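S.,

Sequence below, as promised.
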Amino acid sequence: MSQKNTSKRAKKMGIAEEALKLPPVTRIAWGELRERDWANVITAHEGTNKAYTWRISKGSIGEHILQCPKGDGKFEVKAVCISACGNFGYLGAANGAVHRFNLQSGLHRGSLERLVDADEAAKQKKRNGNQGYNFPGGKRSFWALANQAGGNEDGKIRLSAHDGEVTCIQAECANRSLVTAGVDGIIRVWKFKEMKLQLEIDVGCAVRCGHLHEDGLFVVGCEDKVVRVYDTITGKRVRTYTPVSYTHLRAHETREERRCPMKDGKKKVAGGGGGGGGGGG
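The prediction came back faster than expected:
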């Protein structure tokens, strides 16, 4: 796919062509359903706080550039996703925020936020430091929220989807739920329409990548090089795959980078940053 005449534009602007080219792609999401209507691919790029849309039907970059609003827009985009219906795109940022956008108009359509008690938020802050909070100061900083006598009518305050980098966003195939995971070691299942938290799963280790199968099983590759499978309906862990001695134990040399279950959900394939890979049943 093309960025549309970068050489011609660079010459007109009097700059090098490389200055107009996007950085390397770090994350990509694709949806087939709306391919003929509007952009159906979203990419995140190395070191950038924006995500770019693309049109497969035209083989070119899309009309909209997506960026998280307000303070969240200062952080690098770490995860992207497109809903099963093809109408919405999601961005996950390095500070733990997850935002939704309309792909037809490019407009912001809300964010995933947790409602927690002020006491619980204080405990999380003590445990995680400043992760998940917009320090220093600002309307969304921890201290500003804590000084609002609870933050809302229920005596609770709002926090971003995760404490720290969001590493995975996956949409359920029937638009009933959305699953997110991050370096905080928590998998969260959200109601798709209401964008409210439905279920939390404590993995106990930073999640680096994940894939949601159509039967509700969520496969995650973790920082400890172990692949785990969770049921997003019950919240229970149903499988654990530890690295074996394939490719001379290269899977042990680096963290899991990619994993994907087979179509029938009975097997999965995982790959590591060190070049190792393997499958399991």
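Residues 132-136, 146-151, 245-254 have pLDDT under 50 and may be disordered.

Coffee later?
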